[in-house]
Amino acid sequence: MINYLYREQNWKSQLNDLITDPQELLDILSLSPDVLLSGAILASQQFKLRVPRSFVDKMEKNDPFDPLLLQVLPHHLELEEHAGFITDPLGEEAATQLPGVLHKYESRFLLTLTGACAIHCRYCFRRHFPYQENLPKNKDWLEIKTYIESQPYINEVILSGGDPLTLSNQKINTWLERIASIPQIKFLRIHSRVPIVIPERLDQELLNTLACSRLKVILVIHSNHANEIDERTQYYLKQLHQHNITLLNQTVLLKGVNDSVKVLQNLSYRLFECNVMPYYLHVLDKVKGAQHFDLSQDHVTTLYNELLALLPGYLVPKLVREIAGEKNKTPIVTQFNPTR
Ligand code: SF4
């Protein structure tokens, strides 16, 4: 059943009504506020709790280990120091060329237009990113354009964040027109978790803007578990597909959330039902505060080999890690066989 309450609710009102209080979240889920609450309050002082109510509706009540809850509930383990877990694990400060322009790979670069997100994922590798110093203003566009034109191999712009789909349609349209005005740019990629957590954001105006662009638009959604994709989400993903938007998904492998072959298998099938192709399965970026989601290399390799055996090749995401300074994501297992 599609939840019509949220379908009728404007996406902006959902964005303005996020749950930010750990006590409220635990109350809604009928969880007793023992040790969970004190840890959550402390950890949320460093990286705030933010979660849409409709996403919480997808969680099981009375289950402190619900895989969706574990992704958003601040935890006291985030406050521990662990060797190798740092604030900028991907070396992004060094890759920043101009405010908002992160150029790590030859043919494409990231344009960060906002630091805001509809949800705060506890494993986020940008949880310490200094957005305020790195957001481009309208007056910066000419400098960005000059930078792109000085790099003839760039043919793709990736809107990243923060979450670019938290921006207004007007702002998205303005930036799309600017980007499309540069002939060498052929592709526009948008990375967003909003289609999963507030699918109503995919309103008709946005769909028209994306569909009418001269650029080939690719939307990479970020889903980590099939429970995140209910019928309401499926409805909006199908709208995107009908508007000729290429849909891909990337997943982060997270201890306690999706470190089981069954969960990963279900996710791939669920995505395919919604016309979304599994793209990347990322191992955790070693960001400070997320060490409790980390998995051993052996566990990752075993899981992935099991997944290869269970799924047809076209539904197996590429297992990768990102290494600071590398010119591409680094594949972890190479026996991926797309002809299976
Ligand atoms: S939506 Fe993306 S950028 Fe925002 S907190 Fe989650 S992982 Fe980080």
TrEMBL record:
Positions bound to [4Fe-4S] cluster: C117, C121, C124
Cofactor(s) it depends on: pyridoxal 5'-phosphate; [4Fe-4S] cluster
Annotated positions of the N6-(pyridoxal phosphate)lysine modification: K329
PROSITE patterns: RADICAL_SAM (PS51918)
Top-level taxon of the source organism: Bacteria
CDD domains xref list: Radical_SAM (cd01335)
A single GO molecular function term of this UniProt record: isomerase activity
Pfam families attached to this UniProt entry: Radical_SAM (PF04055)
Transmembrane segments: none
The UniProt record lists the keyword Lipid biosynthesis: no
Keywords: 4Fe-4S, Iron, Iron-sulfur, Isomerase, Metal-binding, Pyridoxal phosphate, S-adenosyl-L-methionine
SUPFAM superfamilies for the chain: Radical SAM enzymes
Boundaries of every Radical SAM core domain copy: 103-318
Catalysed reactions listed for this entry: L-lysine = D-beta-lysine
Matching NCBIfam families: EFP_modif_epmB, KamA family radical SAM protein
Family listed: Belongs to the radical SAM superfamily. KamA family.
Protein name, UniProt field: L-lysine 2,3-aminomutase
Organism from which the protein derives: Acinetobacter boissieri
Lineage: Bacteria, Pseudomonadati, Pseudomonadota, Gammaproteobacteria, Moraxellales
